[in-house]
Design a protein that fits this description.
This protein is an alpha/beta fold and 225 residues long. The chain is built from ten helices and eight strands. The longest helix is centred in the middle third of the chain and has 17 residues. The relative contact order is 0.15.
Length: 225
């Protein structure tokens, strides 16, 4: 099975080198970095360390769709630039996807911090995904290329595109939540505060599920970051 790891990036030079080296150790068929008009060295780093560098308008949905369009793999893995997958998790994903009835899935979540509060938040996120099917992009969503094309990729939403995509994926076919975890950086919580970041994220998701217009949600989200 050919695996294409697709990484949307915007001004991620500070984390990209180490993370691309980590992904290279997993030996996927290809690593694709989709740069969304970065103003730092993101694109230069990607050209040296990734197999393909694609440029796109900024916005994760547009970037991930652009990466998928250029991908050669049978299995697409969408990984945030500040997130990692362990070798154990990667091989677990490959074993699961041997079952042709599985359309795709995601990993559990681990936040790279010793904070008890962040450990609880990560644990809660995994439970949320397991029991309510609410999966975010930092959980490294993976999907068969054929299925991705059938559901027409990510919708052009400015926010919650990952949540909306995964809900459509679940309707299309069987999905799996791996017990292995994607490891994501704690920088958002450390920069903006754990309580504030968590409360804001919960509110955004609740309003999205209540059909609040995504463009208004996005403007509000950006205004209070």
């Amino acid at each position: 099975m050919k695996v294409s790891v697709i990484i949307p990036a915007l001004n991620e030079a500070g984390v990209l080198v180490e993370n691309l080296k980590n992904i290279r150790e997993l030996a996927p068929h290809e690593i694709i970095v989709v740069d969304g008009e970065s103003q730092d060295n993101t694109q230069m780093i990607a050209k040296h360390l990734a197999d393909k560098t694609v440029t796109s308008s900024p916005g994760r949905a547009a970037q991930m769709n652009a990466g998928a369009q250029s991908a050669e793999g049978d299995l697409l893995v969408f990984l945030h630039a500040d997130s990692l997958i362990s070798k154990e998790g990667y091989h677990s994903m490959l074993r699961v996807m041997v079952n042709e009835h599985i359309a795709g899935g995601a990993f559990g979540l681990k936040i790279d911090s010793n904070s008890s509060a962040l450990k609880f938040i990560a644990f809660s996120a995994t439970l949320r995904a397991k029991y309510f099917g609410l999966v975010y992009g930092d959980q490294a969503i993976f999907v068969r290329r054929k299925v991705f094309e059938e559901i027409k990729g990510y919708s052009s939403l400015p926010i919650c595109e990952d949540l909306e995509f995964y809900r459509r994926l679940q309707k299309k076919g069987q999905t799996v939540l791996l017990k292995e975890e994607a490891i994501t950086s704690a920088r958002r919580w450390e920069k903006e505060g754990i309580a504030f970041t968590t409360a804001r994220n919960i509110l955004i998701v609740c309003l999205f599920l209540l059909k609040f217009p995504p463009r208004i949600l996005s403007k509000w989200y950006l205004s209070i970051r």
